[in-house]
Design goal:
With 214 residues, the chain is of the alpha/beta class. It is built from 9 helices and 8 strands. It folds into 2 domains: 165 residues, Rossmann fold (3-Layer(aba) Sandwich); 35 residues, no CATH class. It starts with a strand and ends with a helix. Bound molecules: adenosine monophosphate (AMP).
Length: 214
């Protein structure tokens, strides 16, 4: 099954993707996580990503598509994937469709999470992550005082792009460049609109029901 987790930055896509990996047995493909790993490696490509990511702009499609193609070719994605933060533009959606079509697959579901922008500002500015992507929130799921992730032992930090100003810029990029993807998938009848407010468990329940997996 190939599922796009869709919604504005801060809608909870990463949190839900990690839960769905367990429930559905298919991997999370997060271009944002891949870019952060590349950036942390200090490579030339990582430095290029950083120019865009640190001010909330989208990374150009040609760079993203290269990363995505390499990831989808890995054996764990042979039966499907949960796409988180990808596609983010209509050309990326077209590239995803074409790549899946070559594998005899298609986008089965677009899970569209809706959350109000003011809620998102609160969620993102309070978000803390460890270096391997486990997520915390200063109010809702506080990180331990040691600042060390209990799951993997790595350091817990605030993402560089999780400031209010960057959140608003990222939201504008979402509205102008990413939101039109819904019109691209509308004729295929694969969009499930999900209320993205409530507890993590409530939202997971709504998603699984939409996927026919509850
Ligand atoms: P995310 O972790 O998905 O919120 O992504 C963080 C940042 O990485 C975004 O604000 C973009 O700068 C960049 N990024 C991640 N995925 C993509 C993508 N599919 N297309 C363009 N830029 C992306």
């Amino acid at each position: 099954m190939d599922v796009i987790l869709f919604g504005p930055p801060g809608a909870g896509k990463g949190t839900q993707a990690k839960i769905l990996v367990e429930k559905l047995g298919i991997p999370q493909v997060s271009t944002g996580d891949m870019m952060r790993a590349e950036r942390a490696s200090g490579s030339a490509l990582g430095k290029k990503f950083d120019e865009y990511m640190s001010n909330g702009a989208l990374v150009p499609d040609e760079l993203v598509l290269e990363l995505f193609a390499q990831r989808l070719a890995q054996p764990d994605a042979a039966e499907g994937a949960i796409f988180d933060g990808f596609p983010r533009t209509v050309p990326q959606a077209e590239a995803l469709d074409a790549t899946l079509a070559k594998l005899g697959r298609k986008v089965d579901h677009v899970v569209a999470l809706s959350v109000d922008i003011e809620d998102i500002v609160g969620r993102i500015t309070g978000r803390r992550v460890c270096l391997s992507g486990h997520t915390f929130h200063v109010r809702y799921s506080p990180p331990p005082p040691s600042g060390v992730c209990p799951e993997c032992g790595s350091e817990i930090v605030q993402r560089k792009d999780d400031t209010e100003e960057t959140v608003r810029t990222r939201n504008s990029a979402y509205e102008s460049q990413t939101f039109p993807i819904l019109a691209h998938y509308e004729p295929l009848g694969v969009i499930d609109k999900i209320d993205g407010t409530g507890t993590v468990e409530e939202i997971t329940g709504r998603i699984l029901a939409a996927l026919g997996k509850s």
